[in-house]
Amino acid sequence: MCGFIGQISETKGGRDLLRALPWLQRRGPDSWRIWSSSDRRISLLHSRLAIVDKDPRSNQPFCDAQAGITVAFIGEIYNYHELKDKFSHYHFRTGSDTEVIIAAYVDYKTNGLSLLKGMFSLVIVDEKLKKIILARDPIGKKPLFLARWQDNVLFGSSVLALAAVNKRPVEINTDVLNHFWENSFVPAHTSLLSGVMPVLPGEVLELDWQGNLLRETCLEPEKLHLYNGESLDEVNKTVKILLENAVRSRLTHNPQPTVLLSGGIDSTLVCAMAQKICHEDKLTNLQVITLKSFIPLMNDEFYARFAASRLGLVLRLVKLRTDKLGDSIIKAIDLQDEPLGMPSFFLLARLVNAASSYGRIILSGDGGDEVFLGYGKPSDWYEASVVKRTNKTNLKYGPEIPFWMSDWARKTVSDVLVGHMLAKVDRASAEQAVEIRCPLLDWDLVSYARSLPFKILAHGGRTKALLKEQLSGWPRWFLERPKIGFAYNLRWHWALSNFSGLRETIDRRAMDTFEKFIPPVLQRNSADWRTKDIFRNFEACWRLLVWSRFLLHLDQVPSG
Question: In this predicted model, what pLDDT tens digit does every residue of 139-185 receive, in sequence order?
Fold first, then answer.
């Protein structure tokens, strides 16, 4: 999925960026390149996963010497063919989507970035205007951080890469500790490291040659469709068109289309759409993958089998290896950048690892719950009285959040979506050189859904009503089943080996940091923890494990 880092230096440096390479090459194993401005003040390092155009001429940082523009980015621009037609006067030298960023900027400066539809984080260095532009896609699918440490101004896709280049030890932002322990992730509007802040979804920052902030603007693509009072039947037709467009664009430059199928509504619908498009466009046959249940044919596996059979697809079952489970867990956790304390990260990381043998690009149903009201009950999403709201955040995540959404719903579609779900998907996939594409988080689809009234999104008193309409004719027991999640009980299975590998990994500093949260039975040397106490307090032990590995990485990067 690629990774990059940049530095604004008073000392005309740049070679220090190579210290970040070990943290970036996991995301981009195909090639890497370092670039510096003519005065050596600005340096960029990009590590590439070649997807759209594998020609070495498309390696980044990508330069247009005549325009004085250099770009480094991660992600995909899904409408780049359309933009190439729009900017046909620009002399394109490659088949990559990177060049459309330069073309848009040359014609419209930062306003041109709103033409981009996809998932991305990027930096543009404008040597003529002596500006550095940082931007992140408006949904927030790809990470981007800005760090200010002593005389160092750094930016990039990984906080650990930033810390490696800084050389000096960095401090933990203690303000986020409570949130991490309670929610298992770092809030999307801040960072775990002092001096570091994320570029927010849709944010465009213009910096001068010394790294000072000149201007902050918002990137917001044109909304293709908005609700205008049409009937429910018309809404369903529009949703179908937008879904097909979203899936089709994500099958572009996808030599072996692969879908993660859990048997839930979201992944089943993506799978059905992908199968239809592959057939119509005469693409390679669709590959469908699911996680094999710990207990045969139980939970999600049963529904995935049914969905694949109904669609006439061969389902490939991925069985996670259970030997040396502790080692596998540590390996998966080490993919994280900022720590993620939910055990489901391990399962997703291992599933992606197994699925990577089928191809580098995987489609998933992520985002359906947040866009089409999939969690809880429909009433949980609605708050009739605006006065009752306590959520005062001014942060913007994607298209405007509907006025009728409750505080819980607003948090779910913003901070939880970006800080938890998107961060989990990005780390579990990109850090293993795999690209997960999420059609249900397509800008045109999300902006249309956000414009719909509650009574249409939840018509019939159902969650995800509009997505279920797209599966008309499927049995009610399949459409209305309760959410299950991963069908693999990690706690039980690891307990069979007495949690081998866990106790010796816990760092005393992690226990000291979260002392007030730790259950009394765990407030002893971790080597003395009893198996039954770990089992009963598994989530607390998992968070301590994740935090311990993060501390280990911080110990490593200053001397990296």
Answer: 999 999 999 988 789 999 999 999 999 878 899 999 999 999 999 99
Whole-angstrom distance, CA of residue 147 vs CA of residue 300: 42
pLDDT exceeds cutoff 80 at 393: no
Angle at 317 between CA 276 and CA 418, to 5 degrees: 70
Helix (H) or strand (E) holding 125: strand 118-126
d(CA 533, CA 521): 7
Q: Indicate the SS3 state at residue 277.
A: helix
Would the CA dihedral through 364, 366, 367, 369 be positive or negative? Answer: positive
Provide the residue ranges of all domains of the chain, joining segments of one domain with +. Answer: 3-218, 232-367+426-479, 490-559
**Where in 9-82 does DSSP place strands (E)?**
31-36, 42-48, 62-64, 69-77
Residue of 448, 456, 452, 467 lying closest to 221 (CA atoms): 448
- Tokens for 209, please give them: 């040659």
Same CATH fold, 232-367+426-479 and 3-218? no
- Taking the C-alpha atoms of residue 140 and residue 219, their distance in angstroms, rounded to an integer, is 11
Query: Over the range 78-115, which residues count as b (16 or more CB within 10 Å of their CB) and which as e?
Result: bbbeebbeebeebeeeebbbbbbbbbbbbeeebebbbb
CB 515 within 8 A of CB 178: no
61 upstream amide cis, omega within 30 of 0: yes
CA 366 to chain centre: 10
State the sign of the Cα–Cα–Cα–Cα dihedral 105, 119, 246, 231.
negative
Helices (H) and strands (E) counted in the chain, each on its own, are 21, 17
232-367+426-479: what CATH class? Answer: alpha beta
Q: Is the CATH number of domain 3-218 3.60.20.10? A: yes
**The model's pTM:** 0.94
- Work out the burial of residue 204: count CB atoms within 10 Å of its CB; fewer than 13 is exposed, 13-18 middle, 19 or more buried: buried
